[in-house]
Design brief:
Blueprint lengths: L5 H5 L31 E5 L4 H12 L3 E6 L3 H13 L4 E5 L5 H15 L4 E4 L15 H22 L8 E5 L3 H4 L5 H21 L5 E5 L9 H5 L20 H12 L10 E2 L10
Parallel strand pairs: 1-2, 1-4, 2-3, 4-5, 5-6, 6-7
Helix pairs in contact: 2-3, 2-9, 4-5, 5-7
């Protein structure tokens, strides 16, 4: 599904955006000492260079995991995440590429397994969004690109990881509050998030008999590079997150603990479920 315009498409709104250029800086730091809940596990996290992915990498490392950091092209942000993981005393590798390409996913998983010694946790976090006022404004190229990253990428990563995942492994997918509420300016993005939730529930049914748990996290508005660098219209950013019951956007380190819970043995009786760190908005499912 790729062509010479793939990277241009991703960057049409400055996406995915550099966390190093974002002000104020998102809070990624874990809030408490680690307790070894992921000791000597290996986690592969897509979109781990910034935002929620960085916070998850930092928290997983504090809990004892080695991390494969997958990202598109923000090399400075990825290097920072690698440094964060290594300061926690864990191994980290960075792998740049487009998860919308199956060959890349196959190569990335192979590199992670060879370098870090296996794979225990897959976090499908990477995604993109492009706001449009009307469904007729969504180009065929944008529609294909959004689905390619957000849902095709999850299929490709999971297909590549599956042969390496053994009993006790965990897959955590990032869906969104927009799957439950809808979003009038994010029609294609919201549609992919609905697909991700269905994928999560169906994959759980497919793998639970093998002792592999599959769950998801559905964040609300979170302060990451995704929205300020083109994922929302500029005029909307001044009120970003203010429509939540808590009256503010969340921080990445307020979302990361949901991923940790679903990754570790604390969630041993949970599969096919979705957690909702969204500032107090009540949604179904």
């Amino acid at each position: 599904m790729s062509d010479g315009n793939t990277i241009d498409m991703i960057h049409e709104d400055q996406l995915p955006g550099h966390e190093s250029e974002l002000e104020p800086k998102p809070d990624w730091e874990p809030r408490y000492p680690g307790s070894g809940r992921l000791q000597d596990k290996v986690a592969l996290i897509t979109g781990a260079d910034s935002g929620i992915g960085r916070a998850v990498a930092a928290l997983f490392a504090r809990e004892g995991a080695d991390i494969a950091i997958l990202y598109l092209c923000e090399h400075d942000d990825a290097a920072k995440t690698k440094e964060i993981v290594e300061k926690e005393g864990r191994k980290a590798i960075t792998i740049a590429g487009d998860i919308g390409e199956k060959d890349f996913c196959d190569r990335a998983v192979a590199e992670a397994v060879e370098t870090l010694g296996g794979l225990d946790i897959l976090v499908n976090n990477a995604g993109e969004q492009h706001p449009d006022d009307d469904i007729t404004d969504i180009t065929e190229q944008q529609l294909r690109r959004t689905f390619q990253t957000n849902i095709f990428g999850m299929f490709f990563m999971t297909q590549a990881a599956r042969p390496h995942l053994k009993k006790g492994a965990a897959i955590i997918n990032c869906t969104s509050i927009t799957m439950y509420q809808g979003s009038k300016q994010l029609l294609d993005y919201s549609s992919t998030k609905g697909a991700i939730t269905a994928f999560t529930r169906s994959l759980s049914e497919n793998l639970v008999g093998d002792g592999i748990r599959v769950n998801a996290v559905a964040p609300g508005p979170i302060w990451t590079p995704l929205n300020p660098f083109g994922g929302q219209k500029p005029e909307k950013m001044k009120d970003f997150g203010k429509n939540t019951p808590m009256g503010r956007p969340g921080q990445p380190n307020e979302v990361a603990p949901s991923f940790l819970f679903l990754a570790c043995e604390d969630a041993s009786y949970m599969s096919g479920q979705v957690l909702h760190p969204n500032g107090g908005t009540v949604v179904g499912g």
